[in-house]
């Protein structure tokens, strides 16, 4: 039985992960961590997640539960994820990271840690979005770099989301740019305002909507004169991400080290 710990246990994803682990075969929740000093420390993780008592007390630090788990699932914030990464690297624990908004240096730290521990890092753990990555690669190659198609990535999320564009939207842009031989760093345009002039042919535009309780919508639009193609994914429950993260955890169980993503887990490479 894979013993899993969850950090950010009181967060939107943390609570959903507790529920998903409880439903999974071959995995059990053995530790759950909230912010140090939180009034929730000592409460039951299952009761917090609304799935009934699990007998797992919320802890204020990973060090306190060091011997209680084999793999950590972390959906928190970049700085917290990096602290948890250092802990897992030192303690030889496997790690599934869903946190988005990591900068280039932070991503390089994940790559470095993967020399010692096994990691899955993915901006979106849903099967549907990962299938969309594949479809986008096919679409971009078929339409071609000089095919006259303008490419825009449009995403919508709930009002609480703190990073933009979403990690998923950025990955969609990367997948398309890579397939077309473009460099996203130089061709991305984030939002538009004022006298922008006409659109350039090779830019990839990103538009962000933040509103209400939207779980996560992503569309990539390929538009030319006479037609538009849209590849869209809409998440209606966070359980789709949580189930994907638990699937990644179980897949990682026999991997000694290395950095993987959901394309590896789902055999989509
Ligand atoms: N890869 C994927 O499939 C998905 C990724 N995400 C990403 O996951 C991340 C979390 O999203 P979401 O759950 O909505 O965000 P929340 O803000 O609801 O949850 C983040 C949690 O981390 C906690 N936290 C902050 N600091 C610490 C700390 N030092 N120790 C322990 N816990 C801490 C927060 O506590 P507090 O509430 O006290 O601040 C909070 O409970 C985001 O980056 C989001 O983009 C989200 C969905 C899917
Ligand atoms: O913060 C969220 O909620 C989500 N974040 C991820 C992202 O930034 O891509 C994935 C999902 O869309 C939900």
Describe this structure in words.
This protein has 269 residues and is an alpha/beta fold. It folds into 2 domains: 148 residues, NAD(P)-binding Rossmann-like Domain (Rossmann fold), CATH 3.40.50.720; 109 residues, Dihydrodipicolinate Reductase, domain 2. The strands form 2 sheets. A 7-stranded parallel sheet has the order 3-2-1-4-5-6-12, with helices on both faces. The longest helix is centred in the middle third of the chain and has 17 residues. The radius of gyration is 20 Å and the shape is elongated. The site of ligand LZUJQKHR has 9 residues, from helix 6.
Overall outline: elongated
Please tell me the overall pLDDT.
Answer: 98
* Secondary-structure element series: EHEHEEHEHEHEHHEEEEHEH
Any idea of the CATH class of the largest domain? Answer: Alpha Beta
Straight-line distance between termini? 28 Å
CATH topology of the largest domain: Rossmann fold
- Find the structural class using helix and strand composition: alpha/beta
Low-pLDDT stretches are none
CATH superfamily of the largest domain: NAD(P)-binding Rossmann-like Domain
Count of discrete structural domains: 2
**What's the total number of strands?**
12
Tell me which CATH architecture of the largest domain applies here. Answer: 3-Layer(aba) Sandwich
Number of helices: 9
**Percent strand:** 15-25%
Organism: Nitrincola lacisaponensis
EC number: 1.17.1.8
GO molecular function, one term: NAD binding
Main location: cytoplasm
């Amino acid at each position: 039985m894979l013993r899993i710990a969850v950090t950010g246990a009181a967060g939107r994803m943390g609570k959903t992960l507790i529920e998903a682990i409880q439903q999974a075969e071959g995995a059990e929740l053995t530790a759950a961590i909230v912010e140090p000093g939180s009034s929730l420390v000592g409460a039951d993780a299952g009761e917090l997640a609304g799935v009934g008592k699990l007998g797992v007390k919320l802890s204020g630090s990973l060090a306190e539960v060091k011997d209680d788990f084999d793999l950590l699932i972390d959906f928190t914030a970049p700085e917290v994820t990096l602290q948890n990464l250092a802990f897992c690297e030192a303690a030889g624990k496997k790690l599934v990271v869903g946190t988005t908004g990591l900068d280039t240096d932070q991503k390089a730290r994940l790559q470095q840690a993967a020399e010692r521990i096994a990691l899955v890092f993915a901006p979106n753990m849903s099967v549907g979005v990962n299938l969309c990555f594949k479809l986008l690669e096919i679409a971009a190659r078929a339409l071609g770099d000089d095919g006259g198609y303008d490419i825009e990535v449009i995403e919508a999320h709930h009002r609480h989301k703190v990073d933009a564009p979403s990690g998923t939207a950025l990955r969609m842009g990367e997948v398309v740019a890579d397939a077309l031989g473009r460099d996203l760093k130089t061709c991305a345009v984030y939002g538009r305002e004022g006298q922008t002039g006409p659109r350039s042919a090779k830019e990839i535009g990103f538009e962000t909507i933040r509103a209400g309780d939207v779980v996560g919508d992503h569309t990539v639009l390929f538009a030319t004169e006479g037609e538009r193609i849209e590849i869209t994914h809409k998440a209606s429950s966070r359980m789709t991400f949580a189930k994907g993260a638990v699937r990644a955890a179980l897949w990682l169980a026999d991997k000694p080290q290395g950095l993987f993503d959901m394309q590896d887990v789902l055999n989509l490479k």
